[in-house]
Amino acid sequence: MSREPGLYLRQGSRSALGRVALYLLIVLSPLAFAFAAQAETDHPLLQEIAKGLALTAFAIVALQPVLAARYRWVERPFGQDTLYRFHRNMGMFAGVLLLAHPILYAAGGEWDLLYSFEGGWEVALGRVALLALVGIILTSVFRTSMRLDFETWRGVHNGLALSLLVLGFVHSVAAGGDLSEWPMRLVGLMLFSLGFVSQLAHFRSVHSREHATEFVVVRVTPETADVCSLELKPARPELGIDHLPGQFLFLTLHRESGPTEEHPFSIASAPSRDGHVTATIKASGDFTRSIRDTEVGDRACVRPSVASHTCCTTSRIRWSSSRAAWASHPCSACCDTCTKKAATAPCSCSTATARRRTSWRAPSWMRSRRRANPRCGWCTS
Question: Which of 139, 174, 207 is the last residue of a domain?
Protein backbone atom coordinates (compact mmCIF):
# COMPACT_ATOMS: atom_id res chain seq x y z
CA MET A 1 0.00 0.00 0.00
CA SER A 2 1.20 3.48 -0.77
CA ARG A 3 2.86 5.35 2.05
CA GLU A 4 1.50 8.73 0.97
CA PRO A 5 -1.26 9.47 3.49
CA GLY A 6 -4.70 9.85 1.93
CA LEU A 7 -3.58 8.95 -1.60
CA TYR A 8 -6.46 6.58 -2.27
CA LEU A 9 -9.01 9.16 -1.12
CA ARG A 10 -8.08 11.62 -3.83
CA GLN A 11 -8.71 9.07 -6.56
CA GLY A 12 -12.01 8.88 -8.40
CA SER A 13 -15.02 11.14 -8.72
CA ARG A 14 -16.37 13.01 -5.74
CA SER A 15 -19.61 14.13 -7.28
CA ALA A 16 -22.49 13.56 -4.87
CA LEU A 17 -25.19 15.07 -7.05
CA GLY A 18 -25.06 12.27 -9.60
CA ARG A 19 -25.35 9.62 -6.92
CA VAL A 20 -28.31 11.32 -5.28
CA ALA A 21 -30.03 11.63 -8.67
CA LEU A 22 -29.36 7.96 -9.40
CA TYR A 23 -30.81 6.96 -6.02
CA LEU A 24 -34.00 8.95 -6.66
CA LEU A 25 -34.26 7.51 -10.16
CA ILE A 26 -34.05 3.94 -8.88
CA VAL A 27 -36.51 4.57 -6.03
CA LEU A 28 -39.11 6.14 -8.31
CA SER A 29 -38.57 3.83 -11.31
CA PRO A 30 -41.08 1.10 -10.21
CA LEU A 31 -43.77 3.72 -9.72
CA ALA A 32 -43.03 5.31 -13.10
CA PHE A 33 -43.07 1.95 -14.91
CA ALA A 34 -46.34 1.01 -13.18
CA PHE A 35 -48.04 4.23 -14.33
CA ALA A 36 -46.70 3.78 -17.85
CA ALA A 37 -47.85 0.17 -18.09
CA GLN A 38 -51.31 0.72 -16.62
CA ALA A 39 -52.80 4.06 -17.61
CA GLU A 40 -56.32 3.03 -16.53
CA THR A 41 -57.51 0.88 -13.63
CA ASP A 42 -60.77 -0.31 -12.12
CA HIS A 43 -59.38 -0.37 -8.56
CA PRO A 44 -60.37 2.29 -5.99
CA LEU A 45 -58.04 5.25 -5.61
CA LEU A 46 -56.93 4.26 -2.10
CA GLN A 47 -55.87 0.82 -3.32
CA GLU A 48 -53.86 2.36 -6.16
CA ILE A 49 -52.15 4.69 -3.66
CA ALA A 50 -51.44 1.70 -1.42
CA LYS A 51 -49.81 -0.19 -4.28
CA GLY A 52 -47.77 2.86 -5.23
CA LEU A 53 -46.50 3.19 -1.65
CA ALA A 54 -45.56 -0.48 -1.60
CA LEU A 55 -43.63 -0.23 -4.88
CA THR A 56 -41.68 2.80 -3.64
CA ALA A 57 -41.00 1.18 -0.27
CA PHE A 58 -39.76 -2.01 -1.94
CA ALA A 59 -37.27 0.00 -4.00
CA ILE A 60 -36.03 1.72 -0.81
CA VAL A 61 -35.70 -1.62 1.00
CA ALA A 62 -33.78 -3.07 -1.95
CA LEU A 63 -31.33 -0.16 -1.83
CA GLN A 64 -30.78 -0.34 1.94
CA PRO A 65 -28.06 -3.05 1.62
CA VAL A 66 -26.36 -0.92 -1.05
CA LEU A 67 -25.94 1.90 1.48
CA ALA A 68 -24.42 -0.49 4.04
CA ALA A 69 -22.26 -2.62 1.73
CA ARG A 70 -19.25 -0.23 1.93
CA TYR A 71 -19.03 0.37 -1.79
CA ARG A 72 -16.31 2.98 -2.23
CA TRP A 73 -18.02 4.61 -5.19
CA VAL A 74 -21.15 5.13 -3.10
CA GLU A 75 -19.46 6.28 0.11
CA ARG A 76 -16.68 8.54 -1.13
CA PRO A 77 -18.61 11.81 -1.62
CA PHE A 78 -20.61 11.57 1.61
CA GLY A 79 -18.71 9.73 4.33
CA GLN A 80 -19.85 6.48 5.87
CA ASP A 81 -21.35 8.13 8.94
CA THR A 82 -23.66 10.18 6.73
CA LEU A 83 -24.65 7.11 4.73
CA TYR A 84 -25.48 5.15 7.88
CA ARG A 85 -27.69 7.96 9.16
CA PHE A 86 -29.38 8.13 5.75
CA HIS A 87 -29.74 4.33 5.82
CA ARG A 88 -31.49 4.53 9.19
CA ASN A 89 -33.79 7.39 8.20
CA MET A 90 -34.78 5.84 4.88
CA GLY A 91 -35.46 2.56 6.65
CA MET A 92 -37.88 4.36 8.96
CA PHE A 93 -39.49 6.07 5.97
CA ALA A 94 -39.89 2.77 4.11
CA GLY A 95 -41.38 1.26 7.27
CA VAL A 96 -44.05 3.98 7.41
CA LEU A 97 -44.91 3.38 3.73
CA LEU A 98 -45.14 -0.38 4.20
CA LEU A 99 -47.28 -0.10 7.33
CA ALA A 100 -49.63 2.28 5.49
CA HIS A 101 -49.89 -0.11 2.53
CA PRO A 102 -52.30 -2.71 4.04
CA ILE A 103 -54.33 -0.07 5.85
CA LEU A 104 -54.98 1.97 2.71
CA TYR A 105 -55.61 -1.14 0.64
CA ALA A 106 -58.17 -2.37 3.17
CA ALA A 107 -59.76 1.10 3.30
CA GLY A 108 -60.41 0.74 -0.42
CA GLY A 109 -63.17 -1.78 0.36
CA GLU A 110 -61.45 -4.97 1.58
CA TRP A 111 -61.23 -4.61 5.35
CA ASP A 112 -61.33 -8.38 5.77
CA LEU A 113 -57.73 -8.57 4.57
CA LEU A 114 -56.59 -7.18 7.93
CA TYR A 115 -58.09 -9.96 10.04
CA SER A 116 -59.20 -12.77 7.76
CA PHE A 117 -57.01 -15.83 7.12
CA GLU A 118 -58.69 -16.64 3.81
CA GLY A 119 -56.66 -14.26 1.68
CA GLY A 120 -54.29 -16.89 0.31
CA TRP A 121 -50.63 -17.69 0.89
CA GLU A 122 -49.41 -14.52 -0.80
CA VAL A 123 -51.32 -12.40 1.74
CA ALA A 124 -49.85 -14.50 4.55
CA LEU A 125 -46.35 -13.80 3.19
CA GLY A 126 -47.13 -10.09 3.25
CA ARG A 127 -48.12 -10.33 6.91
CA VAL A 128 -44.93 -12.19 7.79
CA ALA A 129 -42.95 -9.51 5.94
CA LEU A 130 -44.69 -6.84 8.04
CA LEU A 131 -43.73 -8.74 11.20
CA ALA A 132 -40.11 -8.76 10.01
CA LEU A 133 -40.36 -5.02 9.39
CA VAL A 134 -41.72 -4.40 12.89
CA GLY A 135 -38.89 -6.52 14.29
CA ILE A 136 -36.29 -4.45 12.44
CA ILE A 137 -37.75 -1.18 13.72
CA LEU A 138 -38.08 -2.35 17.33
CA THR A 139 -34.60 -3.85 17.57
CA SER A 140 -33.04 -0.80 15.94
CA VAL A 141 -34.79 1.82 18.05
CA PHE A 142 -34.80 -0.05 21.38
CA ARG A 143 -31.57 -2.05 21.11
CA THR A 144 -30.17 -0.52 24.29
CA SER A 145 -33.39 -1.03 26.24
CA MET A 146 -33.54 -4.63 25.04
CA ARG A 147 -29.91 -5.11 26.16
CA LEU A 148 -28.81 -6.59 22.86
CA ASP A 149 -25.06 -6.63 22.33
CA PHE A 150 -23.88 -5.28 19.01
CA GLU A 151 -23.06 -8.59 17.33
CA THR A 152 -26.40 -10.13 18.31
CA TRP A 153 -28.26 -7.07 17.08
CA ARG A 154 -26.37 -7.01 13.79
CA GLY A 155 -27.14 -10.67 13.15
CA VAL A 156 -30.83 -10.19 13.95
CA HIS A 157 -30.98 -7.01 11.89
CA ASN A 158 -29.34 -8.55 8.83
CA GLY A 159 -31.45 -11.70 9.04
CA LEU A 160 -34.71 -9.79 9.33
CA ALA A 161 -33.69 -7.39 6.55
CA LEU A 162 -32.92 -10.26 4.18
CA SER A 163 -36.21 -11.95 5.11
CA LEU A 164 -38.11 -8.71 4.46
CA LEU A 165 -36.49 -8.35 1.04
CA VAL A 166 -37.25 -11.95 -0.03
CA LEU A 167 -40.78 -12.09 1.40
CA GLY A 168 -41.63 -8.65 0.03
CA PHE A 169 -40.49 -9.61 -3.47
CA VAL A 170 -42.42 -12.90 -3.50
CA HIS A 171 -45.52 -11.18 -2.12
CA SER A 172 -45.30 -8.43 -4.74
CA VAL A 173 -44.99 -10.89 -7.61
CA ALA A 174 -47.74 -13.22 -6.37
CA ALA A 175 -50.29 -10.67 -5.14
CA GLY A 176 -49.49 -7.44 -6.95
CA GLY A 177 -51.16 -6.84 -10.26
CA ASP A 178 -48.47 -4.32 -11.19
CA LEU A 179 -45.80 -7.04 -11.24
CA SER A 180 -47.87 -9.53 -13.23
CA GLU A 181 -46.44 -8.31 -16.55
CA TRP A 182 -42.83 -8.98 -17.48
CA PRO A 183 -41.62 -5.38 -17.93
CA MET A 184 -42.56 -4.57 -14.33
CA ARG A 185 -41.55 -8.00 -13.11
CA LEU A 186 -38.11 -7.47 -14.64
CA VAL A 187 -37.76 -4.15 -12.77
CA GLY A 188 -38.71 -5.88 -9.53
CA LEU A 189 -36.29 -8.73 -10.21
CA MET A 190 -33.44 -6.29 -10.87
CA LEU A 191 -34.12 -4.42 -7.63
CA PHE A 192 -34.32 -7.68 -5.68
CA SER A 193 -31.06 -8.92 -7.23
CA LEU A 194 -29.31 -5.62 -6.42
CA GLY A 195 -30.43 -5.76 -2.81
CA PHE A 196 -29.64 -9.46 -2.39
CA VAL A 197 -26.16 -9.19 -3.90
CA SER A 198 -25.41 -6.08 -1.83
CA GLN A 199 -26.54 -7.89 1.32
CA LEU A 200 -24.09 -10.69 0.53
CA ALA A 201 -21.39 -8.09 -0.14
CA HIS A 202 -22.13 -6.56 3.28
CA PHE A 203 -21.77 -9.97 4.95
CA ARG A 204 -18.48 -10.46 3.14
CA SER A 205 -17.13 -7.01 4.02
CA VAL A 206 -17.90 -7.53 7.71
CA HIS A 207 -16.71 -11.11 8.14
CA SER A 208 -14.03 -11.48 5.46
CA ARG A 209 -10.41 -10.58 6.21
CA GLU A 210 -9.45 -10.30 2.54
CA HIS A 211 -9.03 -6.50 2.61
CA ALA A 212 -7.85 -6.28 6.22
CA THR A 213 -4.26 -5.60 7.27
CA GLU A 214 -2.59 -7.48 10.08
CA PHE A 215 -1.53 -5.20 12.95
CA VAL A 216 0.00 -5.76 16.37
CA VAL A 217 -0.82 -3.87 19.57
CA VAL A 218 2.35 -2.11 20.77
CA ARG A 219 0.93 0.11 23.52
CA VAL A 220 -2.18 0.27 25.70
CA THR A 221 -2.53 3.65 27.45
CA PRO A 222 -5.36 4.35 29.94
CA GLU A 223 -6.20 8.03 29.43
CA THR A 224 -9.01 8.37 31.98
CA ALA A 225 -11.26 6.06 33.95
CA ASP A 226 -13.28 5.18 30.84
CA VAL A 227 -10.99 6.15 27.95
CA CYS A 228 -8.12 4.07 26.63
CA SER A 229 -5.73 4.48 23.68
CA LEU A 230 -4.43 1.64 21.54
CA GLU A 231 -1.30 2.11 19.44
CA LEU A 232 -0.98 -0.36 16.60
CA LYS A 233 1.78 -1.12 14.15
CA PRO A 234 1.49 -3.13 10.94
CA ALA A 235 2.98 -6.60 10.87
CA ARG A 236 4.99 -5.33 7.90
CA PRO A 237 5.68 -1.57 7.59
CA GLU A 238 4.85 -1.48 3.88
CA LEU A 239 1.33 -2.72 4.65
CA GLY A 240 0.32 0.29 6.76
CA ILE A 241 -2.86 2.19 5.97
CA ASP A 242 -3.23 5.60 4.34
CA HIS A 243 -5.45 8.14 6.04
CA LEU A 244 -6.23 11.82 6.35
CA PRO A 245 -7.12 13.74 9.52
CA GLY A 246 -10.65 13.01 10.67
CA GLN A 247 -10.90 9.57 9.10
CA PHE A 248 -11.52 6.30 10.88
CA LEU A 249 -10.65 2.62 10.66
CA PHE A 250 -12.43 -0.69 11.23
CA LEU A 251 -10.74 -2.58 14.05
CA THR A 252 -11.01 -6.26 14.97
CA LEU A 253 -9.04 -7.45 18.00
CA HIS A 254 -7.98 -11.09 18.32
CA ARG A 255 -7.44 -11.63 22.04
CA GLU A 256 -7.57 -14.52 24.45
CA SER A 257 -10.57 -12.92 26.15
CA GLY A 258 -13.17 -10.42 25.04
CA PRO A 259 -15.41 -10.28 21.97
CA THR A 260 -13.90 -10.63 18.51
CA GLU A 261 -15.94 -8.29 16.35
CA GLU A 262 -15.37 -5.39 14.00
CA HIS A 263 -16.01 -1.80 15.09
CA PRO A 264 -15.17 1.63 13.59
CA PHE A 265 -12.97 4.03 15.55
CA SER A 266 -11.55 7.45 14.74
CA ILE A 267 -7.82 7.63 14.12
CA ALA A 268 -6.27 9.77 16.85
CA SER A 269 -2.74 9.93 15.44
CA ALA A 270 -1.17 11.88 12.60
CA PRO A 271 -0.28 10.04 9.38
CA SER A 272 3.15 8.44 9.69
CA ARG A 273 5.42 6.65 7.26
CA ASP A 274 6.12 3.79 9.66
CA GLY A 275 2.42 2.88 9.59
CA HIS A 276 1.68 3.32 13.30
CA VAL A 277 -1.90 4.35 14.12
CA THR A 278 -3.56 5.18 17.42
CA ALA A 279 -7.23 4.91 18.35
CA THR A 280 -8.52 6.57 21.52
CA ILE A 281 -11.63 4.68 22.60
CA LYS A 282 -14.28 5.57 25.18
CA ALA A 283 -16.02 2.73 27.04
CA SER A 284 -19.61 2.96 25.85
CA GLY A 285 -20.58 -0.66 25.10
CA ASP A 286 -19.71 -4.27 25.73
CA PHE A 287 -16.83 -4.25 23.24
CA THR A 288 -15.34 -0.88 24.17
CA ARG A 289 -15.47 -1.75 27.86
CA SER A 290 -13.17 -4.69 27.12
CA ILE A 291 -10.49 -2.52 25.48
CA ARG A 292 -8.58 -2.28 28.77
CA ASP A 293 -8.17 -6.06 28.70
CA THR A 294 -6.10 -5.77 25.53
CA GLU A 295 -2.46 -6.69 26.01
CA VAL A 296 0.68 -5.68 24.16
CA GLY A 297 1.34 -8.22 21.44
CA ASP A 298 -2.30 -9.02 20.71
CA ARG A 299 -3.13 -9.34 17.03
CA ALA A 300 -5.54 -7.00 15.29
CA CYS A 301 -7.06 -6.70 11.84
CA VAL A 302 -7.45 -3.16 10.55
CA ARG A 303 -9.53 -2.16 7.58
CA PRO A 304 -8.92 1.43 6.46
CA SER A 305 -11.70 3.92 6.08
CA VAL A 306 -13.28 4.07 2.63
CA ALA A 307 -14.94 7.46 3.10
CA SER A 308 -14.08 11.05 3.78
CA HIS A 309 -14.77 12.83 7.05
CA THR A 310 -17.95 14.85 7.00
CA CYS A 311 -18.23 18.33 8.39
CA CYS A 312 -20.56 18.83 11.32
CA THR A 313 -20.25 22.63 11.20
CA THR A 314 -20.94 23.36 7.55
CA SER A 315 -23.72 25.73 8.55
CA ARG A 316 -21.16 27.84 10.42
CA ILE A 317 -18.89 28.30 7.41
CA ARG A 318 -19.13 31.86 6.16
CA TRP A 319 -17.38 34.51 4.12
CA SER A 320 -16.03 37.42 6.13
CA SER A 321 -17.58 40.81 5.47
CA SER A 322 -14.58 41.98 3.47
CA ARG A 323 -14.58 38.76 1.36
CA ALA A 324 -10.81 38.86 1.75
CA ALA A 325 -10.47 35.85 4.04
CA TRP A 326 -12.17 32.57 4.62
CA ALA A 327 -13.61 32.00 8.09
CA SER A 328 -14.42 28.42 9.05
CA HIS A 329 -14.20 25.85 11.77
CA PRO A 330 -10.68 24.37 12.15
CA CYS A 331 -12.01 21.04 10.90
CA SER A 332 -11.34 22.48 7.42
CA ALA A 333 -8.13 20.44 7.43
CA CYS A 334 -10.03 17.19 7.02
CA CYS A 335 -13.42 18.09 5.55
CA ASP A 336 -13.96 18.07 1.79
CA THR A 337 -16.55 20.84 2.05
CA CYS A 338 -14.15 23.08 3.93
CA THR A 339 -11.01 22.33 1.94
CA LYS A 340 -12.67 22.90 -1.42
CA LYS A 341 -13.84 26.31 -0.20
CA ALA A 342 -10.49 27.06 1.41
CA ALA A 343 -8.72 26.21 -1.83
CA THR A 344 -10.59 29.00 -3.58
CA ALA A 345 -10.23 31.52 -0.76
CA PRO A 346 -7.38 34.05 -0.43
CA CYS A 347 -6.11 32.46 2.79
CA SER A 348 -2.51 31.45 3.55
CA CYS A 349 -3.62 28.49 5.65
CA SER A 350 -0.84 25.91 5.36
CA THR A 351 -3.29 23.01 5.33
CA ALA A 352 -5.32 24.53 2.51
CA THR A 353 -2.10 25.27 0.61
CA ALA A 354 -0.97 21.65 0.96
CA ARG A 355 -4.34 20.37 -0.22
CA ARG A 356 -4.28 22.83 -3.12
CA ARG A 357 -1.12 21.26 -4.45
CA THR A 358 -2.72 17.83 -4.55
CA SER A 359 -6.36 18.47 -5.41
CA TRP A 360 -7.02 21.91 -6.95
CA ARG A 361 -4.90 24.71 -8.34
CA ALA A 362 -6.15 28.22 -7.61
CA PRO A 363 -5.91 30.83 -10.42
CA SER A 364 -2.92 33.15 -10.34
CA TRP A 365 -5.02 36.21 -9.53
CA MET A 366 -6.45 34.42 -6.51
CA ARG A 367 -3.06 33.20 -5.30
CA SER A 368 -1.68 36.73 -5.42
CA ARG A 369 -4.40 38.00 -3.07
CA ARG A 370 -3.96 35.26 -0.49
CA ARG A 371 -3.04 36.41 3.00
CA ALA A 372 -3.38 35.21 6.57
CA ASN A 373 -6.84 34.99 8.01
CA PRO A 374 -6.92 36.14 11.67
CA ARG A 375 -10.12 34.17 12.25
CA CYS A 376 -8.85 30.90 10.73
CA GLY A 377 -7.87 28.25 13.31
CA TRP A 378 -5.09 26.98 11.08
CA CYS A 379 -3.55 30.29 10.06
CA THR A 380 -3.27 31.55 13.62
CA SER A 381 -2.15 28.29 15.23
Answer: 207
Q: Is 74 helix (H, G, I), strand (E, B) or coil?
A: helix
Q: What three-state secondary structure class fits 86?
A: helix
State the CB neighbour count (10 A cutoff) for residue 236. 10
Using a pLDDT cut of 70, give the percent of the chain over it: 73
Q: In whole angstroms, how far apart are CA 370 and each of 216, 316, 317, 324, 353? A: 45, 22, 18, 8, 10
Percentage helix, strand, coil for the chain under 3-state DSSP, each rounded to 5: 50, 15, 35
Q: State which H helix or E strand residue 251 sits in.
A: strand 248-254
CA dihedral 363, 364, 365, 370 (to 10 degrees): 90
Claim to verify: residue 176 and residue 271 sit in the same structural domain = no
46 part of a folded domain? yes
Residues 167 and 18 in one domain: yes
**Number of independent structural domains in the chain:** 3
Q: Residue 40 — φ and ψ, nearest 5°?
A: -125, 150
Collapsed DSSP state (helix, strand, coil) of residue 136: helix
d(CA 161, CA 178): 23
Q: How far apart are CA 318 and CA 337, in angstroms?
A: 12
The verdict on 135 and 58 lying in the same domain is: yes
Domain range spanning residue 343?
314-368
Alpha-carbon distance of 64 to 202, in angstroms, equals 11
pLDDT digits (tens, 9 = 90+) for 163-201: 999 999 999 888 866 776 777 888 999 999 999 999 988
Task: Identify the domain boundary among 155, 176, 207.
Answer: 207
Whether residue 359 sits in one domain with residue 274: no
